[in-house]
Write a structure and sequence with these properties.
about 300 residues; alpha/beta; globular
Length: about 300
Amino acid sequence: MRCHGRRWAPLALAFVLLAVATGCRAGRSAGSAPPGTSTHTIRVNGQDRSFRVYRPAALDGTEPAPLVVMLHGGFGTAKQAEQSYGWNEQADAGHFLVAYPDGVERAWNAGGGCCGVPAKNGVDDVAFIEAMVRAVEQATPVDPRRVYATGISNGGLLAYRLACDTTTFAAIGPDSATMLGDCPAPAPVSVIHVHGSADHNIPYDGSPGDGFATIDGPSVPDVISLWRRVDRCAPATASTAAPVTTSVATCADGRSVELIVIVGAGHQWPGSQSKPVVERALHLDPPSTALNATDTIWRFFQAHPRPA
């Protein structure tokens, strides 16, 4: 691992042991996750992959903390996701770690032929995310029952792929996404999905999108129904506080599958700060102000650790 960040002595030994065990090359930083943001590189399947880690100053590195993996959307980056969606501030308040991985050529291979260069070249992004989580865990105390994944658009697609192909995550929180590719035997996982009813890139009803990439996946209700079957959920109950409708199903072993639909919202991260230049570059709509997705998703994660 090559790590670039401020020195943090208590993690020095763990970082050295990780570097020796994995055959990675250590950079100048003594610790893997110093307070604030640090940047890292690991080699996965012969390719250097980069990610950022944010550690709140309140975490002293002695007690296992939750870890949230935030997956940027198509055309985005780890740095852009860190700056755009408010997860660092949420981590300060909630005392958890955040990892921001970088996709190859600003995209993720999420299955079903999507998306971009990673899909074309068969990049194993699931292997990368799992390797990143292990690297963080080996150098920084992480609660293995409280590892979560969230993401927007292409990142949300990858969150579903992680739920289909791994048992790493206690819960996922896709936004403005659907599920692509095969998912024949997924393990139970809690799910919170946020979607705008007017999303034209990844339409709620499953019709082909008209964004930069044509996403033609199942409808959001169909995806949610699948996970409610996987999680052995009771019938859902719905409530509306216009323009937001929330449908909650309680499931076996304390899990839950929740769908939040914002009427009139497009392809965006609700509650984020509007940045027109970024929105144009990432093919996003202005964010809805009806909901703070970061706070909502974190509260869901906080309430749904992996069952003991």
